[in-house]
Amino acid sequence: CEGSTCLLTMKETDREAVATAVQRVAGMLQRPDQLDKVEQYRRREARKKASVEARLKAAIQSQLDGVRTGLSQLHNALNDVKDIQQSLADVSKDWRQSINTIESLKDVKDAVVQHSQLAAAVENLKNIFSVPEIVRETQDLIEQGALLQAHRKLMDLECSRDGLMYEQYRMDSGNTRDMTLIHGYFGSTQGLSDELAKQLWMVLQRSLVTVRRDPTLLVSVVRIIEREEKIDRRILDRKKQTGFVPPGRPKNWKEKMFAILERTVTTRIEGTQADTRESDKMWLVRHLEIIRKYVLDDLIVAKNLMVQCFPPHYEIFKNLLSMYHQALSTRMQELASEDLEANEIVSLLTWVLNTYTSTEMMRNVELAPEVDVGTLEPLLSPHVVSELLDTYMSTLTSNIIAWLRKALETDKKDWVKETEPEADQDGYYQTTLPAIVFQMFEQNLQVAAQISEDLKTKVLVLCLQQMNSFLSRYKDEAQLYKEEHLRNRQHPQCYVQYMIAIINNCQTFKESIVSLKRKYLKNDVEEGVSLSQPNMDGILDAIAKEGCSGLLEEVFLDLEQHLNELMTKKWLLGSNAVDIICVTVEDYFNDFAKIKKLYKKRMTAEAHRRVVVEYLRAVMQKRISFRSPEERKEGAEKMVREAEQLRFLFRKLASGFGEDVDGYCDTIVAVAEVIKLTDPSLLYLEVSTLVSKYPDIRDDHIGALLAVRGDTSRDMKQTIMETLEQGPAQASPSYMPLFKDIVVPSLNVAKLLK
């Protein structure tokens, strides 16, 4: 292996020599005129080569001579070692023989010890006499900030004191008087040590500032502490052998240094709170932001600058990181134990759970890779976090209830205004209630999402639950609003417009609930939340239905007088009641144009049905009894014309909905056909057709209709009734009953037969 290595080395050397030669030749032959001197260059290089070879041969010869001389000396040394070994054996033999003689030299030994002590005293006389002067110089150096020089003189004082005390201890460890005398003479030494330590601690307390302005000062402090640590170790080692420990030792300045740094970190964290809740509602946000900035800046300085001032085994950055983390944990615990408001709990948890471990702080690129967030313990224990979340949810529940109640009260005040409500971008009336409610929900959900997904889901469920209770109150208030208006229809002035807004709000609420769930609910938990969510759609449908009913009630209160004119003598003689009814309904539905299409469609269908039912009720109330075929014909034709008027009206109102509006008015036409019939023998067939079309028509309805004709005999009436009772018609699934709501007052078959 060694031969191969040598061979490789020689080859490498040859290559380097060739490369060097090529470089030199290239340097010599850079210009054309230098080619004439090639022979001269060759002779010069040959002379140099011969000279080098001669020197090399001389060097090798010298080395060989040296090796020869060395081998000769090694041979002589071996002989000398054998002679010494023999001499040592002779000395050992003589020592064993004279051991008793040595024991008799104890007095000489004591004299030697005393001489050693006196020699130490003489040696330290100069230092002993100069102690006061050294003390003054040391004091001056400390005051001047020359800490290294001051420590050097302090070490000299302590060394003199400790040396004298150690010699006294060796000579007479029980002589406390002399020990006290020495200690007293060097009494100022301990004071100087304490004063120097105070200066060191002051520098360490400002270490993050000092390391930027004067890192040399910080390095001096660390060097002093390192010196003291070495002295402590040396004294502790000597204690194991002799039992002697100088006063004030061990100083443990390294341990005290870390304690000072830890205290400084704690004070810095606690000192960042500049405001209180009374002076600033955002006090906690400001406090946490200041902490974030200070801690991040301090750790960056520690990582980039302080580590250069401390020995590696101090692990200064790791220790400072631990100190800051512990101080932050303690501070967060203190804040969590205070009586925090809901928004303050959110700020605290967001900072602890998210900000602290984000790139804004511990994941900052300037702290990588020294800071591993995964190894940091939580600032707050799971139990404390759980308690804070419970408190937050409890407070939030109370706040949401209060906010919803206040929002509803504010909306109710708008209902009695003399100005119309605002319209949305599509022109539909609305109030600000849905926007206010869901803006509040959005804000709380966004805040909860900053903390955790679990809290966001809990807040969403809470919002939906409170929304259910709120909608029940909303329904009750809308009902009271309608009832109060019916007691005095002149007040409030914009009742119709605000009732329309209330109805429209129902659809806005529905859409907002769906949007809220889609935005803040994950698919994997949506089903569970939906099951636990109360049925708000049903409540909103009920509110809208009651609102629409209230508006139609308003219409029919105005129509009541004209509906009462139908099927009377006045009507037969030329009343324009249906004209007024059509104009009134159309006028109201022009106002209803501000209702959203879904509800307007339902209202149009219900208004159509109700007008027809009222018309049929007028027929069944037997307000008129025709006396001749001419009257029956005239009345029936008028009914058909008015049915067409109503059909035209509701076709117009339902345009754009795609609804079949002819069916209701066909009922009036069918009843008119029964009245118009001129041949009584066909009356049974006509009535049977009517009953088959409208299965919900009852006997009292047939009796009333026959009574309106005024020409049906008792036997005919009885025959028709008995025949119809034998085969009641079956209603089709799509049939919408009209007659079931019509009551025939004080009229029955028995009276008709009489």
UniProtKB/TrEMBL annotation:
Keywords: Acetylation, Cell projection, Cytoplasm, Exocytosis, Golgi apparatus, Protein transport, Transport. GO terms for biological process: exocyst localization; exocytosis; protein transport. One of its GO terms (molecular function) is SNARE binding. It is found in: Cell projection, Growth cone; Cytoplasm, Perinuclear region; Golgi apparatus; Midbody. GO terms for cellular component: exocyst; Golgi apparatus; growth cone; membrane; midbody; perinuclear region of cytoplasm. It holds the Pfam family Sec6. The keyword Transport applies. The exocyst complex is composed of EXOC1, EXOC2, EXOC3, EXOC4, EXOC5, EXOC6, EXOC7 and EXOC8. Interacts with EXOC3L1. Interacts with BIRC6/bruce. Interacts with MYRIP. Interacts with SLC6A9. Component of the exocyst complex involved in the docking of exocytic vesicles with fusion sites on the plasma membrane. Belongs to the SEC6 family. This is Exocyst complex component 3. It comes from Cebus imitator (Panamanian white-faced capuchin).
